[in-house]
Amino acid sequence: MKAPAFEYIKPRTIDHVFALLAEYGDEARLLAGGQTLMATLNMRLSEPAVVIDITGIDALRGIALSADGSMLRIGALVTHSEIEASALVAAHTPLLTMAVPHVAHRAIRNLGTWGGSIAYADPAAEWPACALALDAVVLVRGKGGERRIAAADFFLDLYTTALAEGEIVTACEIPARQSNQRFAFDELARRHGDYAIVGLAVAARLIEGRLADTRLAYLGIGTTPVRARKTEQFLDGQAPQVTVLLKAAQILATEFSGEAAPLGDLTNSAATKRHLATVLLQRTLANLAA
Ligand SMILES: Cc1cc2nc3c(=O)[nH]c(=O)nc-3n(C[C@H](O)[C@H](O)[C@H](O)COP(=O)(O)OP(=O)(O)OC[C@H]3O[C@@H](n4cnc5c(N)ncnc54)[C@H](O)[C@@H]3O)c2cc1C
Questions:
Q1: What separation in Å is there between the alpha carbon of 257 and the centre of ligand 1?
Q2: Looking at domain 183-289, which of 3.50.50.60, 3.90.249.10, 3.30.428.10, 3.30.390.50 is its CATH number?
Q3: Dist. CA 229 → ligand 1 center (Å)
Q4: 170-208, pLDDT tens digit by residue?
Q5: Which of 36, 84, 226, 235 is most deeply packed, by most CB within 10 A?
């Protein structure tokens, strides 16, 4: 199918974007990499009157380390491939370097953007789960100025975020890796490049061989990325040995039962996803310890 007719505008300043959003409201859609939006337009799942192409806004580009080295800033228009190739990302937020080969295919990674993925908030996408695991802050701006929203407060429901009307994602700030921090990422998908059935982003400290500040952020489990907080609590203070990982998998299976059970989809039941989540837990923690 072809997209319905729409007006196309490519502003050169962020203030022009805000003016257009104020003018057209819900009739407008932002276009970044277009790797999700163009499909929804072509399938007529979305029929905006105006498409606002934000790729001409240079202020939304770039990856930069803060002057004191404590924070990496990733602009909304940074593509998945730029993240993949970035030495700054590899050095300071290596979890993203581990996760990026799982994001779609090369052609999509060349166009799709960090900000588009964060704003779209697909619960099976890699970047929202990584943002949660890394305790990232999402920077959003509207006519009224900038707001800083913790990733934990940003992803509210299925494809629903804390972005208010007229606001856009401008960047994320991610705490730079500390020397005792370790990361791991893995996911299970039917074919490489497909959206994951289940995935897991892990960040933890290893202090004298024991885990601390463990953060387990799952994708493909719920309507948003999901932290497994009870399992995290169990793991903190433990050495990541086989017996501990087996016990952690049991705790996770209990945690992901009842109300917190994964949402099944057309091809995978909640029970399958729960099982895959325990498999990923053991794999990623073994990798993290190694
Ligand atoms: C075949 C295929 C496979 C894919 N597989 C994966 C995968 O495995 N993992 C994965 O994570 N993604 C996957 N994707 C999606 C891809 O990563 C997209 O690039 C991403 O979800 C959206 O980024 P975009 O820049 O293309 O956004 P666009 O398509 O341009 O926009 C997506 C939505 O976000 C809004 N938006 C964009 N930028 C902003 C902003 N700065 N502020 C506010 N709103 C904004 C748009 O208005 C739109 O509603 C896949 C896509 C395809 C076509």
A1: 31
A2: 3.30.390.50
A3: 28
A4: 999 999 999 999 999 999 998 888 889 999 999 999 999
A5: 235
Domain spanning 58-175, CATH architecture:
2-Layer Sandwich (3.30)
CB-based contact 189:230 (threshold 8 Å): no
Which residues 6+ apart lie within 8 Å of 124 measured at CB? 195, 196, 199, 219, 220
Ligand 1 atom nearest 194 alpha carbon: 8
Q: What is the pLDDT of residues 235-263, one digit of tens each?
A: 999 999 999 999 999 999 999 998 889 99
Ligand 1 binding residues, C-beta < 6 A: 29-37, 39, 76, 103-104, 108, 112-113, 115-117, 119-120, 125-127, 168-169, 195
The pTM score is: 0.97
Q: Is 111 exposed, middle or buried (0-12, 13-18, 19+ CB in 10 A)?
A: middle
